[in-house]
Design a protein that fits this description.
4 helices, five-stranded mixed beta sheet, 27% helix, two-stranded antiparallel ribbon, single chain, alpha+beta, 2 domains
Length: 181
């Protein structure tokens, strides 16, 4: 069985009205997306499908935690997310309809199921903050202190080395040659 098969909703056999679907999202889900910035998570997704005669409305509620890397100390940490989104599915003659937007997708009359894996993935990915940092608890950083100390030591060594390089007289001689030209 394909890993994303459970995320396909066969709407053709559903009656008009509201229908509920629930999904568990973890590392197996994210493994299906090769270049995913999220590699792991503990998420639940509640999808409400409201079927009408000419369109379908999907309401997504995704909540839980995603595992991210801290930009400061490179440690993994869990970031809480709570997402509510809406997706409208219209039926048309041609899938190349020009009014395709972020909130509206078009299916042909021959389609019988909706794959919600890509919208779920996109909503989760958009919820990732631009700058990922370990959470500060009561003003104290929860970053890996051992790594922070190592980075500080390496930074000081690089700064000291750059100062030593500036004092090397051979560089001054080379700078004079460049300035003559």
């Amino acid at each position: 069985m394909k890993p994303l098969q459970p995320y396909r909703i066969p709407f053709s056999g559903l009656k008009t009205g509201k229908h509920q679907f629930e999904y568990e999202i973890d590392h197996l889900f994210f493994d299906q997306f090769v270049y995913s910035i999220v590699k792991n998570g503990r998420l639940r997704a509640a999808v409400e499908l409201e079927k009408q005669e000419t369109f379908i409305i999907l309401q997504f509620h995704i909540f839980g935690e995603i595992e991210l890397n801290c930009d400061r100390c490179l440690a993994n940490y869990f970031h809480k997310i709570d997402i509510k989104e809406r997706l409208i599915v219209k039926f048309g003659e041609d899938k190349n309809w020009d009014d395709d937007t972020e909130e509206v997708i078009v299916l042909t009359k021959n389609d019988y199921e909706i794959d919600v894996s890509l919208p779920l993935y996109e909503y989760i990915t958009v919820a990732v903050p631009y700058v990922t940092r370990c959470e500060d608890v009561e003003g104290v950083s929860s970053c890996d202190q051992e790594m922070m100390n190592k980075l500080k030591t390496l930074s000081n060594k690089a700064h000291k080395q750059s100062k030593d390089d500036a004092m090397d007289p051979r560089w001054d001689a080379l700078k004079q040659i460049i300035n003559k030209n």
